[in-house]
Amino acid sequence: MPIENNLAQNQAQGLQLIVPNLHRRYSGVTATNRMVAPKLAGMFRAAWLGPHAPDGIARIGFAELLKLWRHRTPLIWHARRNDEMIAGLLLRSLGWPLKLVFTSAAQRHHTALTRWLIRRIDAIIATSALSAGFLKREATVVMHGVDTDRYAPPPDRAAAFAEAKLPGRYAIGCFGRVRAQKGSDVFVDAMCRLLPRYPDFTAVIVGAVVPEQQGFANDLKARIEAVGLQSRIVITGELEIEQVQRWYQRLTIYAFTSRNEGFGLTLIEAMAAGAALVASRAGAAEFVVEDGVTGVLTPPGDVDALVAALEPLMRDPASAAAMGMRARARVVEKFSLDAEANQIAAVYRTLV
Questions:
Q1: Which of 20, 165, 296, 349 is the most buried (most CB within 10 A)?
Q2: Tens-place pLDDT, residues 51-108
Q3: Are 9-145+336-349 and 157-334 the same fold in CATH?
């Protein structure tokens, strides 16, 4: 078995951290996990269990996991979903020496099952103070970080936009699965009103249309066709992560339109890439964005407010570019991956 893809047998007894990812579907939770895990692997002997393993961390299969029964020293098991907490608790009950950590991004009251699981976890991390307030127990707030080298402004944004072969000179984007929770309809409705006034802009929705949301997506396409903007409101579908990163570099403005979020990683990804930001007050937006300085905050689900916030930036792309530079500087200072990893590592060290 290749050492670069699997946990080498002679490393097993030195293992300190298991990062489980038990969901096959790629999601925002997976994305945040993938970004910070290689940083943690630089501080602990770590292995990734499950699909979507990133570079920079060893992989462990389920067969190898079974061999860690009665491991000599405690292992950190860092769960981010209910099924990963359940798996960790089950393994511990059967003899695996696990110290369980759970990261919660939810900004809502938890189900009875989740509350039961959380009470049995050794340490809890919340991605914002708001998320921590729903946990009913002590938690450490660690906000997500972003790879500011990978998510960086392009050398030439105009050239980056031109390679997409879209109409106009500027792009305005909204990223995430196409569904009501992400506010895809709010973005489309705002674009249907604004794009006829600003012919230099094209709107891009980067995200998957999952089968259960096909009706919702079809309705959006019907709205776009009704105003004749099929060539200027583009829905890309699901893309590889490298392509998504390139789309960020093409944006002059990013619209974060979620009605509710755990954190909203696209906020800091877009800011790191130097896009001006208009964000609904969902997820961590109020903690991340300095309203009027590094972005503009709006009420969730409010098309009128989104239009009012976007229009000055579309009218003055130079002002949008300046806001994007300020946004980039804030992310570099406050929301780097190194900062996130160091704070998570401090939680681990209280347990082992």
A1: 20
A2: 999 999 999 999 999 989 888 899 999 999 999 999 999 999 999 999 999 999 888 8
A3: yes
Q: Are 65 and 22 in contact (CB under 8 A)?
A: no
- The tokens for 318 are 């130079």
User: How far, in Å, are 45, 191, 296, 298, 319 from residue 197 at the CA level?
Assistant: 55, 10, 21, 21, 18
Structural contact between residues 253 and 222, judged by C-beta atoms closer than 8 angstroms? no
**Are residues 275 and 317 in contact, defined by beta-carbon separation less than 8 angstroms?**
no
- Closest of 246, 244, 266 to residue 187, by C-alpha: 266
CATH 3.40.50.2000, domain 157-334, yes or no: yes
Give the C-alpha separation, 251 to 249, whole Å. 6
Residue 235 contacts residue 154 (beta carbons within 8 Å): no
Of the candidates 152, 171, 151, the one whose C-alpha atom is nearest the C-alpha of residue 163 is 171
Query: Does domain 9-145+336-349 bear CATH number 3.40.50.2000?
Result: yes
